[in-house]
Amino acid sequence: MNEAVVQVRGLRTQFGSHVVHDGLDLDLNRGEILGVVGGSGTGKSVLLRAIVGLDAVRAGTIDVLGNRIGTLSGPDRRALEQRWGVMFQDGALFSSLTVRENVEVPLRAVPGLTNAQCRGLAELKIGMAGLPWKANDDMPADLSGGMRKRAGLARALALDPEILFLDEPTAGLDPIGASAFDRLIVTLRNALNLSVFLVTHDLDTLHACCDRVAVLAERRVLTTGTMAQMLDVDDPWVHEYFHGPRARAVTGKD
Ligand SMILES: Nc1ncnc2c1ncn2[C@@H]1O[C@H](COP(=O)(O)OP(=O)(O)OP(=O)(O)O)[C@@H](O)[C@H]1O
């Protein structure tokens, strides 16, 4: 029996008169890597931001690890935030802090951790994200795009989260860097028993990482299933996406 660590029901989000989601339902099950795909502007990032409480919800409910988003007291909300990590598309690092200091930011909010413990834990997470120790003292501006993403991942892992939210983790990476990042996501999921909500356009990432895919279209989740199941979905966008030339290049099938 699947345990949903994220459960979205009847979600409606909108900015002014622009409705992004309407009646959207989605589950992220414990231990799975769920790929969230959809055309540009279908609301993948807004969905991620709504789940972690950064974008307002007009209707519907979002439960994360049994807690209803939008109803929690300050301390409960902060306690819940410590159980997830978010890696935004550009890494969202503080430009005036070193990589280690960036990763220390969430650790500093934990009562009882000494400076030395924060430092040690930050260095551990930076190593887990696949960065060399030399990167600890680098400023974000000194890093390549791929290294910045790994630094953002290290920060997302800082508090030993149960859920990892990744917004287009391989966007802008060269194919070798992207496939290394894909492998890292799977390795970390397996080692840390993470549940992963992964927004992506990258078909290679879907194939390499994802147990299930959710397709966003028409303001809701149009379909969910395995990559194999996506091949049989009778919808023009889904068909083009999973059977188009780029999909054939990934699978090697005509
Ligand atoms: N803060 C905001 N204010 C107004 N409109 C917004 C805001 N954030 C997002 N939107 C709009 O919501 C829609 C969905 O945006 P979102 O970034 O979630 O799309 P996406 O599916 O992630 O797109 P892409 O694949 O291009 O990154 C877009 O039309 C966008 O312009």
Oligomer: single chain
Give the helix proportion (percent range).
25-40%
Structural class: alpha/beta
CATH homologous superfamily label of the largest domain: P-loop containing nucleotide triphosphate hydrolases
Tally of alpha and pi helices: 10
What's the overall average pLDDT, rounded?
92
Rg, rounded, reads: 18 Å
Shape descriptor: globular
**Total separate domains:** 2
Largest sheet, in brief, is: 6 strands, mixed
CATH top level class name of the largest domain: Alpha Beta
Low-confidence parts: none
What are the defining features of this structure?
254 residues; alpha/beta; 38% helix; globular; binds adenosine-5'-triphosphate; ABC_transporter-like_CS
Tell me briefly what this model is.
With 254 residues, the chain is α/β, with parallel strands linked by helices. It has helices spanning 44-51, 74-81, 99-108, 115-128, 145-156, 175-192, 203-209, 227-230, 236-243, 245-251; strands at residues 4-15, 18-29, 33-38, 59-64, 67-68, 84-87, 163-167, 195-199, 212-217, 220-225. The protein has 2 domains: 4-83 and 165-251, P-loop containing nucleotide triphosphate hydrolases (Rossmann fold, 3-Layer(aba) Sandwich); 98-160, no CATH class.
